[in-house]
Amino acid sequence: MKMTRYEHLSPSDQMRGMEPPPLEKPFSEEDTFIPLPKPVEISVPPLDLRSAIEGRRSLRRFARDPLSLEELAYLLWCTQGVVRVAAPYYTLRNVPSAGGRHALETYLLVNRVAGLKPGLYRYLAFSHRLLEIDTSHTMGDRAMAACLGQPFVRASAVTFLWTCVIYRMAWRYSERAYRLVHLDAGHVCQSLYLASEQIGCGCCAIGAFDDLMLSEILGVDGEREFPIYCAVVGRKAD
What we know:
- The chain is an alpha+beta fold.
- 29% of the residues lie in helices and 24% in strands.
- A seven-stranded antiparallel β-sheet has the order 1-6-5-4-7-9-8, with helices on both faces.
- Helix 5 packs across helix 6.
């Protein structure tokens, strides 16, 4: 923390005139994609904000009912939905981020979502669709093991696994980025809590995970891109 104080910061690459990194992690158009319902077409029941805040609790037990694809799309839209792009410098989204840099990538362990095979996916925020990564039958157990064996990772309808592409933030803020990306993760997860309340679901944030094991599962190097936060979502049990 001390070395991220302003008196210790190196000149940022933005200050040095270097080109900014991409605002979204690259992918191949030859991969398998799942289109999501458009945000304007998603219908959710109204919920008073005070009721959502006061009713929010971290839940670890869920009903077996699946989420609909529309409900999953709504949660993704609320947590990382792109409202406006000012490439290559920033995006405006439904959650705040330092300088609009939005260094997080959203991965999903899908356990029970109607119309989706169980497995690992990545949310492509710019095109509002899912990228299929791995639908092997062992993925759920591996992700649970990476989260220190916590069973609700496997029992949820979907588990959100957020990573951070650190240079996307460090390009502008140098070492200070290591503080800012954790603030961003908090903004995203709180939005997930509140959006989950609106669709009759519960949420529980997870900070306990094996960094190296989860990095391996997600196919990231653990340094330039590393896991930063997780959260489970599922239908509330009676």
